[in-house]
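Request: Not sure, any thoughts?
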Amino acid sequence: MSKADITVKEIQITYPLLDSDFKKESIKDYDLAILGIYAEKCGSGFKVKKIYKTNKRGTKVKYEAIKDKDDFDNYIEKVKELINVHNEKYGTKLKIY
């Protein structure tokens, strides 16, 4: 039997706790959780490709594989920009290292 090389190009995850009720009750906490989603799979080699509209069943997120170092660096810059927007909106001092 021979070994097969398998590469995962995309994954999709639904976050059931990040539903429309949670978003309505605490938009600041919801926005913070969304920032966490952007960082969560980065260490596993994935970046957010699309976040679907939040509904009563949660928030569905599609991730795609990070292609190379430049892709990773560009993604980190995007996450930093999102953090800056969050900091300005809520007066927080979040940082990414």
Q: What stands out?
A: The chain has a mean pLDDT of 95. Residues 2 and 8 are 19 Å apart (CA to CA). DSSP finds three helices and three strands in the chain. The first helix runs from residue 20 to 25.
